[in-house]
Amino acid sequence: MYQCCIFDLDGTIINTLHSLKKTVNETIKQFGYGPIDEYHVRYFVGDGYKKLVERTLVYCGDTELTHYEEALTVYDEMFKKYCLYQMEPYAGMPEFLKMLKEKGIRIAVVTNKAHDRAVECVETVYGPGFFDKITGEGKGMKCKPDPEGALKTAEEFHVEPSECLYFGDTNTDMKTGINAGMDTVGVLWGFRDREELEAFKPKYIISHPDEIRSLFNETNENSPASVGER
């Protein structure tokens, strides 16, 4: 049985699309750009805020990234203000996480979101101490898809990578799970589509957390027979 579940944050355990869109649009407005729509925000996020700012500026026409350094500073200021804007947990996720905890499964978050903001978001939605560990960008860990954050989490919990499930909604997450040697779960309720996830052949693809509950039944020894067919 799996002993640990590691989750991406944005698009996996919390719908932060509105807060990200609000933050990036308030940022680029300072430079006379925007706004950009949710579709593009979905595809610009996932690799940390620096990449988000870079991709957004290029899309808006600043191909030489003239405003890049200043925009990073503005983004940081705006994100402190809007990081909690209209965010909410995905359907079924609170119940699924509670079930894992009741069964003694360790749960953690590994995200490319800045660490302080990640903790703020997760604890606002799920409460302080609900997750056993939260690791965000800026805590000395390399950004995903580097597996360092996931592997350090497994090491701290004294479990093997093979005993972990890594959940995420983007190609970056699929790469992270694969690079860490963990079984990977692609979730379809997040920011990307099935085609993107399937390209990396995750162990499971699910459209609702309930679809993977059977893995944690006491009589189920990691059999994937009926779970999240790809």
TrEMBL record:
Phylogenetic placement of the source organism: Bacteria, Bacillati, Bacillota, Clostridia, Lachnospirales
A GO term, aspect molecular function: phosphoglycolate phosphatase activity
Identification of the protein by name: Phosphoglycolate phosphatase
PANTHER family xref list: PHOSPHOGLYCOLATE PHOSPHATASE (PTHR43434)
Highest taxon listed in the record's lineage: Bacteria
Any Pfam family matching the protein: HAD_2
Species the sequence originates in: Hungatella effluvii
GO cellular component: cytosol
One Gene Ontology term from the biological process aspect of the record: DNA repair
InterPro entries listed in its UniProt record: HAD-like_hydrolase_sf (IPR050155), HAD-like_sf (IPR036412), HAD-SF_hydro_IA (IPR006439), HAD_2 (IPR041492), HAD_sf (IPR023214), PGP-like_dom2 (IPR023198)
NCBIfam families documented for this protein: HAD-SF-IA-v1, HAD-SF-IA-v3
